[in-house]
Amino acid sequence: MPKVVKQRSSNVADAVTTSKDSKSRLNCWIKRLRQPLLLAAAGAFSVLGFAPWSWWPTALLSMAVLAFCLHDSTPKQAFRQGYAFGLGLFAVGIAWVHISIDQFGGLPLPVSLTLMLLLAAYLSLYPALACWLSRKFRCGNPYLQILLFAACWVLGEFARGYLLTGFPWLALGYSQLDGLLSAWFPLSGVAGVSLVTTIVAGALALTVAQRQWPAAVLALCTLGGSFSLSFIQFISPNGDPVDVALVQGNIEQSLRWQPDQEWPTMLKYLDLTRPHYEADLIIWPEAAVPAVEPMAQEYLDNLNYVATHNDTTVVSGIVDYNFDTRQFYNTLIVLGKQQKPLYEYRYHSANRYQKHHLLPIGEFVPFGELLRPIAPLFNLPMSSFSRGDYTQANLIANGYTIAPAICYEIAFPEQLRRSVNEQTDFLLTVSNDAWFGDSIGPQQHMEIARARAKELGRPLLRATNTGVTAAVDAYGEEIARLPMFSADVLRLPIQRMTGVTPFSQLGHWPVWLVIMLTFALVALVQLKDRKAAD
Length: 534
Prior knowledge:
The radius of gyration is 27 Å and the shape is globular. Helix 2 crosses helix 8. The termini are far apart. The strands form 3 sheets. Strands 2, 3, 4, 5, 6, 7 and 14 form a 7-stranded mixed beta sheet that branches. The model has no long low-confidence stretch (mean pLDDT 89). With 534 residues, the protein is an alpha/beta fold. It has helices at residues 2-46, 56-70, 75-93, 97-103, 109-123, 125-136, 142-162, 185-210, 213-229, 262-273, 297-309, 368-371, 413-419, 441-456, 502-506, 509-533, and strands at 235-237, 242-248, 281-283, 289-292, 313-322, 327-336, 352-354, 395-397, 400-406, 426-431, 460-464, 470-472, 478-481, 488-494, 497-499. The protein has 16 helices and 15 strands.
């Protein structure tokens, strides 16, 4: 009997010990997950800084949380911290991607969500590598460390915008378009705004982490000085306003490429346009004409004649198919009144633009022979386009000079900058965001377009199939827009501008210079510290 009692006591003691060990391990895991969950929440919170909310302080404060957590982190810890932040940012910020995969890609909702999360997981590598790099090359000077963190963050955004065709969506600078730091757009572009935003966030984090009150002064002076930059004007009005009509057809995505919907769609655009032939410029969206250009010549010749007879010009998106080379091009053509015979419309006329930066999966499929048989997602209509040239001549429409970008291309500032010169009157972007339904995706797309206008100092015209169709002045302020998912025309006068911004002349080179100088200074400080230690 005593042996049994002793055995039971031993079992109870073992159970208690096991319970304590399990509780200890659970507490350990909770402590380990606490910071990554906090950073993921901070990344998700930063999405409120972008359209449609545009609460610019939220992105700034979220970056300050990340910078605070990076203090005293090892490079390995910094990688995990940056990855957690990025996962929160992209999992929430680009959640709209799954809509096109689910509704038009022929894949079930769980699969579309999984693919969206895989994309977010990939994009999170860039902030993770930026944080790792900032701690790998850390130095003892806290203020130089702030600059290093900012340089690494922007370097990560540059890499994200170029590697694997690039995905520059949700670059930090866009969150400040309506904030105190927006005056940097015409000076240094969105990358320069990202750099300054990260510096301010780092200064705020240093103030809290080490009670470095000069860092708070640095943050406040940067914000105040940035606001004062808005009073510097690089551009001025040029001539009389131009009467512009932006047409939004609101064609359901599922019907756009149905053969029996071809003529109803083309007639709808003619009906919407007919009351506005008195406008100087009429803009139709991306692929508004759902027939390939060589097969739509009768329709286009008629539209060209009517527009010319009414002393107006129509710029329209259309798909060009070259029967000789068997290549598709996402194209913009100009029909109607021309100042010179050289620009008159005819098939393969020079006054056209062919999209260069194609959207992966949507407009071209990497490893198409392997992927297309797997799922309808990889075999969407019009997903085999060829690229136009990187730099193309401006369109000439009714005597006005237009620098165009089709859909996704508006997210690549350097490409559009190469097309803009002092004679450019307007920026033009046409799109079809029906792929993403009533989500925040089209709103973010519109925000990116606004940034191009502010960077380059030119008014921007945006015509889309379902929205957002809008006009933006040369200072990046939205003038007017049409309601989403409505068939309507936005008619308004647009003021042309003259002059050039520093960004239109220099691009992102000043930002690259700051990044290179930062790494050079860090290397010199590290060398000096090493010699002092020896």
